[in-house]
Design goal:
Order of helices and strands: HEHEEEEEEHEHHHH
Shape: globular
Number of strands: 8
Structural class: alpha+beta
Number of helices: 7
Largest sheet: 8 strands, antiparallel
Distance between the termini: 49 Å
Mean pLDDT: 92
Low-confidence stretches: none
Radius of gyration: 17 Å
């Protein structure tokens, strides 16, 4: 199969990766060899998934996934999971493109302990944001997102360009917060609340039946469960005693 992705998927991945080069204490995270690049078949169409994992001070995991299903479906999925000891939100962005058209594009800084920290919320509100012609409604479990979540269907190439700009705005708000945030002890009440909040976020994301069905058909139910629970949305570990 052609291993190239929809231009918006490729361009956003290429825009994000260099921003991670100078993260504090940046390091690669181990990934099972059979999950780093995955090839399968869905309804007679070849399927390709590529995964990259990193971590740094303040972020327990940065996961970037790009996927292609046959000739007509391209996906980008990226989540930056904070260390619960840091009062930081989760950065998440997803793009779904089918037959050359982007049907869904979402980005958010999702809180794990009540509302977003005041400085982060103010920074987000100060960001200029494009006025998209086709906003989309959140799914039923969308209460895990912040009030600033951006969920749209880009109408043309100009709106795709604007979405990249908006995503990088959300991303840079997180990086600025990361630079100024100091950790709390793992046993602190705030750390424990953020730990449980992040587990709630992952639990709700694991309930996305659409993702699960695609993976079950392309591979098998056991593999799909392993992929979703250990790579896509793994729970943060219990704090060290």
């Amino acid at each position: 199969m052609d291993d190239s992705f929809h231009p918006l998927v490729s361009r956003l991945a290429e825009a994000l990766r260099p921003r991670w080069d100078d993260l504090p204490e940046r390091a690669p995270l181990a990934i099972a060899p059979d999950l780093e690049e995955v090839r399968g078949e869905l309804e007679g169409e070849a399927m390709l998934i590529r995964n990259q994992l990193l971590c740094c001070r303040g972020l327990r995991k940065i996961h970037l996934e790009t996927a292609r299903v046959g000739r007509h479906l391209d996906i980008l999925h990226c989540v930056m999971f904070p260390d619960p000891c840091f009062d930081l939100p989760l950065f998440g962005v997803d793009i779904v493109a089918g037959r050359g058209v982007v049907s869904a594009a979402i980005v958010d800084l999702s809180p794990t302990d009540g509302p977003l920290p005041a400085a982060i919320a103010a920074d987000l509100e100060a960001q200029a944001r494009f006025n998209y012609r086709q906003p989309r409604e959140l799914p039923a479990w969308g209460d895990i997102f912040s009030p600033q979540v951006l969920f749209v269907r880009p109408a043309d190439a100009g709106e795709e360009d604007a979405f990249i700009t908006d995503v990088l705005g959300f991303h840079d708000v997180l990086l600025r917060a990361l630079a100024r945030t100091e950790p709390e002890p793992a046993s602190a009440a705030g750390s424990l609340r953020r730990l449980e909040g992040q587990r709630r976020y992952c639990r709700h994301q694991r309930s996305n039946d659409k993702t699960r069905r695609v993976l079950e058909v392309a591979f098998n139910p056991d593999w799909a469960e392993r992929y979703i629970s250990t790579l896509l949305f793994d729970d943060p570990a219990d704090p060290s005693p």
